[in-house]
## 1
Amino acid sequence: MNDAEYPKAVLVRGVPGGGKSQLTDILRQKLGARVEVLDPDAVDQDSGEYRAFVETQTREGVDPKLHLYRWSRARAYAAIEAHKIIIWNQAFTNLEIFRKMIDRLETHAAACGTKLPILVVEVEVDPQTARQRVAERVNRGGHTVSEEAFARIFNDYKSFVDEGLTVVKVDGRADINSSVTTVLDAIQTM
């Protein structure tokens, strides 16, 4: 891809244990240096940069529940300005909040004199497979998801395919390379 094809946003959504992170990691490798990966679960909250950001947010009276989102949004804005591909990996279950986020990203892109094509990637998987994967991730030292949060996300998760967005679905149990190819093909047509 050449510079004229940037920036772009790929919003990877799905339930915990669906395979979002694995898909995101491989996409980042395939797309190279022009990518900014955003994943609230992977933020180093002990880094000096993040702690300074939180201090500023706290002084401004921002609810601590919003700090990770605001961090990701600030990084997305910087990626738009740098004409990168943004890959944002998160469950994104609430359509209204999702649309507000997209609107903010598009508004920022317009203020920077560019457009921001957006692709929504939905990684789908059954609850049993997802629970098993979360348990395996925890056994490897990764983050967990409470049963309450897991149930809430599964209950709230609905496809956005009929919501006027550009959506590509992949099966979280399918061969990862096939899923990556599907997403890369969709990114090429953005």
## 2
Amino acid sequence: MSAEENKALARRFVEEVWNKGNMAVADELFASDFDDHRLLPGLPPGAEGYKQNILQLRKAFPDLHVTVEDLIAEGDKVVTRATVHGTHTGELMARMGKVIPPTSKQVTWTGITIARVVAGKATDFWVEADQLGLMQQLGVIPAPGQAAR
């Protein structure tokens, strides 16, 4: 596939899966051996764990919206730099198994995903997201210069 076709796949994934919660599109776009290289605690490996992560975030932030800031493609890789906005009105599962109760705070965080695409399917994701910034905005971790609560 061309770089432009791979970028179109990444755009479709953001719009349909992240922004609309359409997991059927995720099933269509993930390869059967999809590998999420950021396996989160408590979630199964592969596509199922990645989809569960999206569903958990959409439950915690029902108005979640991902805006693609940059898409860069070369060879079989697509890099997406995105900004995520949402209002925390549902329980959020923190990485260490703790539940963060709803805060009603509007938050914004950023992330970068590198996807490997083979034959029109995502085979691998590497994700880096500003989890620290998110936790600071929610008041779970003090921001620099603020006392712990």
## 3
Amino acid sequence: MANTINTGKSERGWFQIYKPTQGYWTRLGTAIGVGILILWGAAWLFSRLEVYRSTTYGQYIQVGASIAWILIFGYLLYWFVGKKPETVDFLIAVEGEMKKVNWSTWPEVVGATKVVILFTILTSIMLFVVDTVFMLFFSTIGVLKATGMGDIIKSLFG
């Protein structure tokens, strides 16, 4: 029997994920979102390297750089979402907090939307009236030459 020293750390293999049973949906959503950004970046890089297309190895440069982009940032994504304890613990905590959120019901959302629309309309009417009053005032004292709506209102009252 070999002598082993227990350091208290559990040995994890290369492809083992840190706390694999926790924070699944948050990790999955993060990985999908960042994965889309990585693929978008690879497509952008591929299009930016179009200038090398006419050279002897241009197509290889385009494809190779794009694949390298995907591999490098894919590994970083895997490391942050699956292996790095600080990031994984944060994502697990986020999922735990999201389960505590009290989501609004559909009637509450509709009611709040009506209030916002009504408030926006009333605010725009109030700002129109105040702007018109200022325009009339400044055109009356000769600071502003009013054209448009101010002239129309002035002709109605003057």
